[in-house]
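JOB MANIFEST
job_type = single_chain_structure
chain_count = 1
residues = 431
[input]
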Amino acid sequence: MVPRLRAVTRPLPSADIAAEGLVALADPEAPLVWVRGDRGCVGIGEALRLSFRGPNRFSEAAAAWRELCDSAEIDDPVRLPGTGLISLGTFAFADDSAAESVLIVPRLLVAQHREQWWITEVTEQSAGAGAPATLPVPAPRGDWCGVEFAPSEAAIETGDDPSVAAYLSGVREAVRRIASGDFEKIVLARQIAGRLGTDADLRVPLRRLADRYLDCWTFAVDGLVGASPETLIRSTGGAVSARVLAGTRGRHAEDASRDARARDELLTSAKEQHEHAFAVQSVVTALSPHVEDLRTSEEPFPLRLPNVWHLATDLGAALGAESASIELAGALHPTAAVAGTPTSDAVASIAELEPFDRGRYSGAVGWIDAAGDGEWVIALRCAQIGPTDPASGERVIVASAGGGIVSGSDPRHELGETVSKFRPVTEAFAQ
């Protein structure tokens, strides 16, 4: 039976917010965060959790969310995208993944959109109306001892670690299959792991990500923590937008001329432009049936992040039919940027060439409101934190990173690209 929820949103004076900002309000051990600059939200507690698995996880989630919202009582004088009843969610990459895809309705949500702030409280209708929600007091800062990931960059450079050797072997096999005509592009990932100490305050790495990666959405949803530069879909008030990233060069921020050469090499590389065109076309093809007036930036542009340069293309459109943002995300997933081309053939080979379940890495993470508006990014530059081990009190944390393999890809270069892509997580979780 679908619970009948009540969501009450009220404006919040900005003076009431702690100087540390939204992240300070998050639960230190189980944060629920979606922030970027002067926009975002933090959830405290859970009013409801919905779980999904399998190939229909996006459509089932959209249907369940619509049913929940239809029975909800919403008191929302603020009336902005992200006010009223909302949920934050994360979806697994693969249809057969063991990882759950979830929508979480926070019990209390504190949010900001530039100069406007609000607070939303969610209760069951049977509980009756209560006193207005008040801003929670941030928890005191907890311990932070850092995380050491293995294999280390030193082991990666020498290639001695078995997981590194397996990745290099996978890239070589992918290049062979591309030469045989199995597919044109495939994205292969690898993983590194560490252990998170007892009572670690996860607001520490979240603040680092939010402060450094200003062009990314920093997120924490059900243990998935990261900062993604790639918008899968944004749908608000009938306007739809997306950002496609494919093609990468490592940054050299300490050497301006070398950094500029890396940017220029990316812009002039036929291989990178070819890979980027695959990714853009996959989004255009998937999005076209759902939108009108679809347009893209004329040429790919270099997106500068602290750790890498990316080739980027922005897309905009008008929503052509009544589709919730989750349904649009499901229509787009997986893109060529995280799977390959043709997508179905690439996904099948990913299952063979990656010796692990990606879980939620390169899936979708974001939010949706009762109007179906929402924003979903591809879960990149991220790590999944597991449950606490009762014996040690520690939690395993697994980070993933990958790159697009096309004809002529060099395994050692692709390995170096993953090293660059791991840095947002390894630096954020360092001591």
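[summary]
The longest helix spans residues 162-179.
The chain has one domain: 5-125+142-428.
exit_status = 0
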